[in-house]
Amino acid sequence: MSDKKPVFLVIGAGAGIGGHAAARFAAGGYHAVLARRSDEEGLGKLVGQIEDAGGSASGILLNASDDGTIEELIERIETDIGPIDTMLYNLGAQIGNRKLHDTPHRTFELGWRLGCYGVFRLAHAAFPHMVKRGKGTLLVTSATSAVRGNAGQHSHAAAMGGRRMLCQTLNAEFGPQGIHVAHIVVDGSVDAPDTLGKLLGDNWEAYKASKGDDGVIDPGALADTYFHLSQQPKNCWTHEIDARPWTDVAWWNDNPNPTINSTAANPSFSGPKGE
Amino acid sequence: MSDKKPVFLVIGAGAGIGGHAAARFAAGGYHAVLARRSDEEGLGKLVGQIEDAGGSASGILLNASDDGTIEELIERIETDIGPIDTMLYNLGAQIGNRKLHDTPHRTFELGWRLGCYGVFRLAHAAFPHMVKRGKGTLLVTSATSAVRGNAGQHSHAAAMGGRRMLCQTLNAEFGPQGIHVAHIVVDGSVDAPDTLGKLLGDNWEAYKASKGDDGVIDPGALADTYFHLSQQPKNCWTHEIDARPWTDVAWWNDNPNPTINSTAANPSFSGPKGE
Amino acid sequence: MSDKKPVFLVIGAGAGIGGHAAARFAAGGYHAVLARRSDEEGLGKLVGQIEDAGGSASGILLNASDDGTIEELIERIETDIGPIDTMLYNLGAQIGNRKLHDTPHRTFELGWRLGCYGVFRLAHAAFPHMVKRGKGTLLVTSATSAVRGNAGQHSHAAAMGGRRMLCQTLNAEFGPQGIHVAHIVVDGSVDAPDTLGKLLGDNWEAYKASKGDDGVIDPGALADTYFHLSQQPKNCWTHEIDARPWTDVAWWNDNPNPTINSTAANPSFSGPKGE
Amino acid sequence: MSDKKPVFLVIGAGAGIGGHAAARFAAGGYHAVLARRSDEEGLGKLVGQIEDAGGSASGILLNASDDGTIEELIERIETDIGPIDTMLYNLGAQIGNRKLHDTPHRTFELGWRLGCYGVFRLAHAAFPHMVKRGKGTLLVTSATSAVRGNAGQHSHAAAMGGRRMLCQTLNAEFGPQGIHVAHIVVDGSVDAPDTLGKLLGDNWEAYKASKGDDGVIDPGALADTYFHLSQQPKNCWTHEIDARPWTDVAWWNDNPNPTINSTAANPSFSGPKGE
Question: What pTM does this model have?
């Protein structure tokens, strides 16, 4: 039961972006539904923290890559909890850098299932409800790989590039029906113990320290931006936004340490490109 | 005197985005400095409205395209009013659609002076102060022409395309020094009586009506997004964001009325592109 | 047997781009291998035309979306015909415009299989051979949907957006190993009787006529550009290129018939955007 | 006199791209007009080489940044030599990396004059002649800075970003009038002794050697691509294309040496981005 609160659903509710977004929307008056694949204890902890802070939340375990799971989840929430106002698709498909021949066919396919097909399935299942109500919001956490394909990112970039184009098609069809679709390009490391933390393992704390003060995105700060997007009135909707720490090099920029340095007295060529 | 409040400076403070941004930042605890080229009465009215609402503001007339004006303004504010925390460059260079041969050389140059060179001059004058303090924000109102050049937009698109690349260079050099640069692509018509309103003249009200409910960007809504960007912590900065009304076709999309229609039963080719 | 000629392989060899590319490469001294899903008669005709013109070609029927087909094809060519020098992945996934709810899950998946996964499988199977030889070229026919997602293109845009990012990852890993990957954005209708022609059916001739002189891309002209790309020396490789007829509106532009017209005497606002 | 040959005009005819393009078009049957700012001897040498190879060429010294020079050049050629068929705007504005405060106002302005305003002036002066004939081509050499603004590139990126958007507006208006506009993003160092060579000075040969075999763009190879673009029929025009050496990292990619390495056995996070 959502106590008449609008429902916020997050698929991919770990201790990073997903959990912080749930907490932010709960603090903003939503009933948060947190869905994740595993770790019932971790899930319960996130729900408990929201409730301890005076918010309202539910937790659900599901494997989003299995057929029918997302579809059943939407129906269950709409029937048992309340109308879904805002959804956050927060599943990634990052598996680290792998050469093409260390990327088996099924790995490439799984990347697509989580990174692209899941967004399609979520929209397919939930948008009919939102269209009937003439309103709703879909936030999609995305990544630098959605806008450029780096070496080693075969699976991830193909999935994320598809995700971005899909968000544009969804926006084109459903924006005029009152559904706000926003694609957030997270162009920096997030302080997310359940994903990046696990990927880096013992290197995690050292990695964060190496980034310096404010060198890793605080998922709570990102959650504030997600909440802001969800509150934009219909006359002023953002479809795409990026975010990174102040010390990070934006994805479109070279590393600022050129091989051939320049000085004001002797300005010279700066590096690998003619620019 | 800014009463110890942080200073928000807007260059291009008409009754649209500029004036609403000033009001929003004043409501958020800033002393707003509104600079515009002409109409002392209109300027006084905006300042008065902010003060009536309990905020703090000053108004200054200046012709930003004249050499030395922006530079003198920055020094005056830093000396007489207080340290500038956030600046909004809100001057446009839109002159409507003109064929190349209806775009004289001096028109093209003026577009660049207002659309691109002014941003450079503002950063040149103000960033040294901000660098000393290790903090500051530059918001730049931009336009669809910054990302694609439509027919008739020779002057405007060249100016805005330069503006966007300049914002990226400023961000690359000054982000790591604590200055947040954000480039906002306003991809829809704004309810701005002093600019678009004057451009359309007698057609203005009819134009707005033709866009339907929430069909024109409310500059107050956009100002909320500007304010949100200015409050992002250093670990989570947005450099680029877009905004448009729900019913507007995003700049990258075709008009959704294809010449050859499709149906589910008989899906067919959709229009000018093979996609 | 390729008579010691370098092998050019095209997957998706219809009477449009694929067949013309095969003919162009055969004329340029390659042995062309034409692979397509069906129509043995049509395939034989294309091979015959190449041979009649003094070229060398083979035809193979295969369903590229079936597991193992592309992989087996590569091994067969390398063993029986000769080392593959250049490959063209020319399969599309255009199904016309369909609303989200007229796009079943399996349609979306099939779009990905043909539009994205097939490129991955082809590279996976063929690149090891090319890496050993330190040279090779992969040309990928792509579409406007790879760079923007229009309404109704859910399946196609998601597949093509993934395809484009995949091409970037392949280029990043394999460029320095001597393999040239080029992604060609075909931003206009192609005179292709086997694909667009079938999609439009009885409307095909009327559609072409409506485009005017030179209003539809001649696949032979596009094949010349493909051939040029394949001949670029290693110091000057193109990764991305677009092409469209002169009368077509580029994908990033608005339709040039604004709702509110401008004249030189009275330049006014141009249409749906503030630009 | 052009001996009835179509005229190819290059503005910025040094020993790199400009000179090689002139030679390539002359070899392809054009009368080449080479315009450059200084070095009459060097200019004479380029013209002599073309003539020695059996081609036809003229050389003209002019300072393209001075008002009236480009305009007068066009009239002179049209009157005295022949109708201009194809033009290459090949002036850059690269001054090496300079911090904002090492970029004086007049440097920023000069960058714009050469990088952006010159293209506008050239089109303004020459397109009326081409429109009357219903045909013509404008090739514009561009740079990575047209698509992203790196640190230190304030002047260059603002100029090139404007140049790119200007090319799009020119294409939108003049494509349907038969004028082909192509914007070439040169995303790598060119073996150009008169520009990059001079910028790097004594480091030039060491720089080229450091890039390895085929590690610097051969301007002759690039000229072949320019020539190909100029020969595309009206139904298949390229507006934008990029080029770089095989070993260069494309502008959108990270340096491929991540700070935290991954292996197939232990795939891990790859570097500064979450991708």
Answer: 0.94
